[in-house]
Amino acid sequence: MSIVLSISRRRNSYNLLNHPRFLRRFSVDVDPAPVVKSDSQEFLVVRFLENLRKTPQDDWSSNESLSSLLVSFNSSSSFVSPLVFSQITRRLGSYSLAVSFFEYLDANSQSLKRREEFLSLTFQSVLELAGSEPDSRDKILRLYEIAREKNIPLTVVATKLLIRWFARMGMVNQSVLVYERIDSNMKNTQVRNVMIDVLLKNGLLDDAFKVLDEMLQEESVFPPNRITADIVLHEVWKGRLLKEEELIGLISRFSSHCVSPNSVWLTRFITSLCKNARSNVALEILTDLMKNKAPLEAPPFNALLSCLGRNMDIGRINGLVAKMDEMKIRPDVVTLGILINTLCKSRRVDEALQVFEQMCGKITDGGNVIKADSIHFNTLIHGLCKVGRMKEAEELLIRMKMEESCPPNTITYNCLIDGYCRAGQIETAKEVVSRMKEDGIKPSMVTVNTIVGGICRYHGVNMAVVFFTDMEREGVKGNVVTYMILIHACCSVSNIEKAMHWFDKMLEAGCSPDAKIYYALISGLCQVRRDQDVIRVVEKLKQGGFSLDLLAYNMLIGLFCDKNNAEKVYEMLSEMEEAGMKPDSITYNTLISFFGRHKDFESVEKMMEQMREDGLDPTAVTYGAVMEAYCSAGELNEATKLFKDMGLRSKVNANTVVYNILINAFSELGNLEQALSLKEEMKQKMVRPNVETYNALFKCLKEKNQAETLLKLMDEMVEQSCEPNQITMEILMERLSGSDELVKLRKFMQGYSVASKASSFDLP
């Protein structure tokens, strides 16, 4: 049976092998070697090269085959590309053969119809070969002279090569000659870019800008392109060849031709402008580029958005983002981070959440998908915790756990812990620590310090110590911040003995005792006005080999001024003088405030005089101290007069504290109109009101018919990202006692507007 099968298989194989299709498939004639058609340009190139190689160079002119081939190039029956002779030249592979062939072609091509074009391209190929020769300088010079003698027009490529090579050989003047000698129609954008690059790199700024100015003309035949901008802006920035204003003007001129600097350079320049407090100019540049429809990407906008975010300029941020969307400039993951970070810091958490949902999943210019990471989630969680929206923060944590790419980390849990501690929910904060451990995340020192600080604020030092001790057993050691929290807490309840105990424990724990530690203790003791204890600590500091600095002396002078201990004040001033330290503005301001409180305005004037003699101009703090003294003495007119003189004569701009002194004084007198007028003046002069400003105004609004004004001011606080404090809440709870009003108060605490009747929010 196996033999039959074998025979059958052989028969089938024989039939298959003899099948016509199979024979054609495996025939040697099926895939023949490529045949060059006799009338093709490649055929002519191959034939020409064969004849050139087998004929001695001296006999090329007399060779009939070469002459015949050359005549065939003139045939009208087929089109012959000028690149044919360029290909032949390159394939010769030798510079000397290439030169000989160029000379042969020059001598024997008189009858060629497109002789100039053939010679130009052949010359270009010879030039390319010369550039790779060891002694290229002389050869390139000689070739250029031949081109000039024989009046051979240069190609664009040959022109660019000559300009660059001469510049590299230190012959910039020769580069300039090459450029000046070519026809104007040859000076296209490519050639000009090379010329500008060479001139700038050789420090010939004026010459480079003459070439550039021609390109930047409104009706320029050869306008600039992106490469022009890259060359010019890179070189002038690297060499600091132009002033900032000149650079701005240059970008504007490029923009008029719809040319934008490359994204990296533009981002760097926008960042530089923002660092120099010129964000307005940066915005104008980007707006101009967008108006002219120059191609732009997200990074330069991110640089400006980051600056506006630091200044909490939400209005301009919204405007810029809207413009980006209108011009189809796609944001990226960095844009997302900047926006949600700024909005959360401004307590606009709802807007941050909206941006987060809108941008996640979008495609960037680079083709990437915007994916939220742990930083984005942590920012939102921190923002929600700041306004007490803990339930939503916990929901985001659950969402993080569901995302594979951004699991919660130590920072996530620390944000939640901080939120619960801010709300006084210490036990819940401890529960978060337990959950954190269950998820395999080890508590950090920030975790410990946050809860220790929270316990100290709400439950006292003893409970904080218990928690801290438990954490130490688990291996989490305290650091300087931990001990300073405990020391400060002890000082705040006047338990100096316990404060010193923790100071000693800090030393035992291996925290290096340096001046900062002593200064922190001195600061804490000064804050709780423990003058005798602070004297002991100063003595201990000196025994440890440290000396007080100006900051410490200012703290001590401030303490003794508050204690009305003039003798100690003069003692500190004498010590400063012996140590070679001169009083600074803080020292003088403290003394001026001291004399002001005692209504010793004669000494106040002497101090201000002495201050000027020491080369220190009175600051806003100085004027504030004197104005506060006048206000406390009932001399409001004098305070107002000084306020006006401050800007006119001394050219010192009033700050928030100065305005608050007057607003508070007018509010206490019940003069709401004047207080509100000062608040509006703050806005006009770009001085940000703070929580003390609004607290002073809230105190003045006692009447029922002033409820609308109260709500409007609350909305202003939200818009200004001004976070209310405990005093705010106490005042508002007195003013808003009705059930509906308490709901509005709750909305206000969570960052919502409350004055508009059209606005309604579902509270969590």
UniProtKB/TrEMBL annotation:
Keywords: Repeat. Gene3D superfamilies: Tetratricopeptide repeat domain. InterPro entries: PPR_rpt (IPR002885), TPR-like_helical_dom_sf (IPR011990). SUPFAM superfamilies: HCP-like. It comes from the Eukaryota. Pfam families: PPR, PPR_1, PPR_2. PPR repeats lie at residues 188-222, 332-362, 373-407, 409-443, 479-513, 514-548, 549-583, 584-618, 619-649, 655-689, 690-724. Belongs to the PPR family. P subfamily. This is Pentatricopeptide repeat-containing protein.
